[in-house]
Amino acid sequence: MVPKIPNIPQWGFVSGRISVLEARFLPREFFMNMISQERIEDIVPHLQDTFLKDYLAPGAVREDFGALPDRCFYNMALSLRGNCPSTIPVDIFLLQSDYLNLKGALAGATVFPFPISLFTQEMLLAIAHEDYAELPQSLRESTGWTAGDAFQIDSGILDIMLDGSYLRHLLSLANEIESEMVSIYVRERVLAYIVIVLWRAANQGISLKRYQQHLLPLEDFTQVVIELTGINNLETWPAVIGGIIGDLFNESLESYADDQISSFDLKVTNYLTRIARDGRLQTAGPERVFSFLAGLSVEMQNLKLVVTGRLNRIDQDLLKERLKDCYV
Amino acid sequence: MSPEWIELGRGLCYGGAGLAFGLAGAGSAWGIAIAAHQCAGVLREKPELFGRLLVMLALPGTQGFYGFIAAILMMTQTGLIGGSVIKITLGTGLALFFVGLGCGLAQFISAIKQGEASAAGISLIARRPEAAGRAILFPAFVETYAVVALLATVLFIVFLTQPLALGTLGK
Q1: How far apart are CA B166 and CA A7, in angstroms?
Q2: d(Cα A318, Cα A262) in Å, to the nearest integer?
Q3: pLDDT tens-digit readout, B67-93
Q4: Helix, strand, coil in percent for chain B, rounding step 5
């Protein structure tokens, strides 16, 4: 991608903020060093050099570390969202938590544990009280959806519908922003998500036909889902998936059976990080915000992996193996 | 030559002067705004960088002054300010009009592009403050062409308003 500098007046402020924040990203060596620490007490001082330093209360690392990186990510995303002329690059990252809240609302919950962004509290509460007037369009489009039945739908099927709805929403956001880089990133992410969902289901012996019924429609990926759900032999999947994701799937099949999906997930995340790095070449624009959040998301996942891994005495070599490629 | 034609030449000359400072001023304002957005975002996170960013922010503003110099020179050389009013033929007036337009356009475009180059430099300083010396080179290279345009404008104005040139162009 050729570096370009359009939209500077509109995106200049948030891009300026990101230029400073980007300098705080941590290299792979930092995580390797953390992993190699023998005592947990030696890990905590390292966290002072991370985005988490403002979130570290005494005892927080031992008691509730798992939630800190997520809280840090969402706070940063919401802060940047307020400075963006278009919220789409941020919304793409917040959407998953919105759908988790929606899942809770459809189950009748009135307390929503995940940060609220696109779906308002009022909308979620209305849905929790069986008022589906404001239900997202992406869920209504689901082939198996019939309004009024949400409480009767089998929770497994509702999960599939919500997955499909989330992916449709993601694709529509990517189409709206008209950015080549964001579009490629989201489409590859959606394809990898579909593959992982179907792969897990196949491993658990769940009928893939259910996915054909309830996950669709998914724009250009509809045909891929139909074909994948009709094939039982995983070794023929790469030909249907195609492209780099297909190649990564093929590589993952060479791992141990229990490790194949996590290996694929890791490879896909590294591939997506490589795509997102292109956004750094821009001075200002939606890609800049998107790339930063992609990098921050990976950094938070790595921090969570390393700190919780060390707290739970997980083997150092295994942690090094699972470490995702860093943004810098 | 009739007096009406002489007045038309004068009008064209001052039209050119207006374009020189108008376009240059507009370009500078635009360029500074581009750099200012980026600068404000950086200062939100790192207020201590204000000193280093100020130069980058001010650079696109120079074109406005260059346009102003060109316009003032046109007014002094033709006697509108402090001197005896000289007769400007249609040919000289037309030439001065295009000199002003050319100067204005060069300053306008270079100021906007310098604003973009400054924004890129500001982004670099935000990530690596120690690279401030190198970052200033990006907009400085753009500045070169604004200066060249001003020099050409000055030479044109000075020589076009020489009595010999006025006489030749008037024939």
Answers
A1: 47
A2: 12
A3: 999 999 999 998 888 777 778 888 999
A4: 90, 0, 10
Q: What single DSSP character describes residue A66?
A: T
- The residue of A7, A18, A282, A283 whose CB has the most chain B CBs within 10 angstroms, and thus the best one to mutate to test that interface, is A283
pTM for this predicted structure: 0.87
- Burial of A222 from C-beta contacts in 10 A (0-12 / 13-18 / 19+): middle
Helices A286-311 and A8-22, packing angle to 10 deg: 20
Tell me the C-alpha to C-alpha distance, in Å, between residue A124 and each of A106, A139, A292, B16: 8, 14, 29, 63
Are the CB atoms for B109 and B33 separated by under 8 Å? no
Q: Do B42 and A23 touch (CB under 8 A)?
A: no
Chain mean position to CA A321 = 20
Instruction: Give the C-alpha distances (Å, rounded to integers) separating B98 from B56, B105, B110, B153, B164.
Output: 31, 10, 18, 10, 20
How does pLDDT run across A50-87, given as a tens digit for each residue?
888 888 776 666 667 778 898 899 999 999 999 999 99
How many angstroms separate the CA of residue B127 from the nearest CA in chain A? 5
Q: Reduce the DSSP state of residue B79 to 3 states and report it.
A: coil
ipTM above 0.85, yes or no: no
Report the Cα A159 to chain-centroid distance in Å. 16
Q: pLDDT at residue B25 above 70? A: yes
SS in 3 state form for A184-239? HHHHHHHHHHHHHHHHHHHHCCCCCHHHHHHCCCCHHHHHHHHHHHCCCCHHHHHH
Q: Cα separation of A39 and A49, whole Å?
A: 18
A-chain residues near B120 (CB < 8 A)? 5, 283
d(CA A321, CA A324): 8
Measured in angstroms, the CA of A2 and the nearest CA of chain B are apart by 15
Is the N-terminal amide bond of A217 cis, ω within 30° of 0?
yes
Query: Are the C-beta atoms of residues B127 and B80 closer than 8 Å to each other?
Result: no
**How many angstroms separate the CA atoms of B48 and B42, rounded?**
10
Q: Which pairs from A72-81 meet CB under 8 Å and 24+ separation? A: A72/A300, A73/A296, A73/A297, A73/A300, A74/A115, A76/A21, A76/A51, A76/A293, A76/A296, A77/A293, A77/A296, A78/A115, A78/A117, A80/A14, A80/A17, A80/A18, A80/A289, A80/A292, A80/A293, A81/A117
Q: Identify the DSSP state of B130.
A: G
- Whether A108 has a pLDDT exceeding 70, the answer reads yes
B-proximal residues of A, 273-302, CB under 8 Å: 283-284
How far apart (Å, rounded) are the C-alpha atoms in residues B141 and A113? 53
DSSP state letter for B49: G
Instruction: Give B12 or A132, the one with higher predicted confidence.
Output: B12
**C-alpha span between A286 and A178 (Å, rounded):** 10
